[in-house]
Predict the structure.
Amino acid sequence: MSWAVVLTAPEDQLELLSALFFEEGALGVELQDRELLPMPGTAPLPPGLGRCIAHFTQREEAVAAAEALRGAGAARVEPPLEIAGRDWTIAWRAHHKPALVGPRSWVHPPWEAPRLRAGEVGVAIDPGMAFGTGSHPTTALCLERLDELLAERPGADVLDLGTGSGVIALLAWKLGAARICGTDNDSTALQAARQGAELNGVPAGRIEWRLSADPDDHREAPFGIVIANLLLNTLVELAPGIATKVAAGGRLVLSGLLAAQAGEVERAYAAQGLSPIARKQRDGWVLVELSRS
């Protein structure tokens, strides 16, 4: 027997809430959107909402996690469900498969690597570390554009703001970026990113992982490629500092945005001297790209 806690919340909160479940001792967390069939006993998802399903071996752990997540502002947390006859320490892995995220790039779980063709690279991300596996449309859009930009600008410097699992910075290394820095204001996320770097065989010191809540820190030279997959309010609030990170002729890639929010974030960065040059949408989410002339 095992126990599952089902939480329904806005889609842009799911990765953060899944990380909180892992902090509460979950063995695994599934993220579901409207395209996935619901598990038995759960209703179809309303528009704009997604679902976290966290698995525990003990009822007491599941009850404690449900109570903790109710205080995290989630839309709805169901009482723990008893699950019979499945080992969720293994079964949850079936929801994580290799994914082609760019012209040359794959993201895959450690237990199932894709067969790479010449010129392709793969980044192994353990979903148990949470903070982003590349499956969310905003992360996938960023990974795809990073692949394209590094094909256009081989050896460019890359800054990944709000690195989470480190998947964007790790792909930058796989694709031959020069200077790479991943920052986050969450020390647990950076620990996961460092573990991901070790899992992928990144030499010590090759990627700088920095604990920082302030992108207005001017300690380093600007970067040719800056990627920030954050929420709208954060992107707008931090626009002055983030804009300074973009080198002359560099590109700024922003996501974590619903399609209707693209105009607001473009205006915030245009006020900092950056020019919007492209948008790309996927499943209601949007990536905005700007340049510094």
